């Protein structure tokens, strides 16, 4: 679990999560938002209009990223990330296929780290 590869994957995923989490929370995003297809834009607009969904996802991404960087509760952080990364993947699969590469990267990095920490999850399946 403490291999150099695992450490690189963990930190890379953490940095991605923190960057995109902060981007959701700041009044002026520092990562420019790409032009989205109409259905994707409608979906994102509806999430934004709730007043809490995108902010909550951003906060969760930052918390998970910090936990990964600090190497605290990593298996827990990875499980928290599963529904987020799955929804990112589904969003791009169904609404914005042009951005699916980033979604695949997040899902694969999450999957690699879950695999590397599988011993922590074994008691859940006994």
From TrEMBL:
Keywords: Membrane, Transmembrane, Transmembrane helix. It is a multi-pass membrane protein. The keyword Membrane applies. The chain crosses the membrane at residues 51-70, 77-94, 100-118. Its main location: membrane. It is found in: Membrane. One of its GO terms (cellular component) is membrane. This is DoxX protein. It comes from Flavobacterium pallidum.
């Amino acid at each position: 679990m403490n291999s150099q590869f695992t450490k690189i994957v963990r930190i890379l995923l953490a940095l991605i999560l923190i960057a995109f989490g902060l981007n959701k929370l700041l009044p002026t995003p520092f990562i420019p938002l790409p032009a989205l297809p109409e259905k994707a834009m409608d979906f994102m607009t509806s999430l934004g209009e709730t007043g809490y969904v995108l902010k909550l996802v951003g906060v969760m991404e930052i918390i998970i990223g910090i936990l990964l960087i600090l190497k605290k509760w990593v298996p827990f952080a990875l499980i928290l990330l599963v529904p987020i990364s799955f929804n990112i993947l589904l969003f791009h699969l169904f609404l914005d296929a042009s951005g699916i590469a980033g979604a695949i990267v997040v899902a694969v990095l999450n999957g690699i780290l879950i695999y590397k920490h599988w011993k922590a999850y074994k008691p859940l399946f006994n």
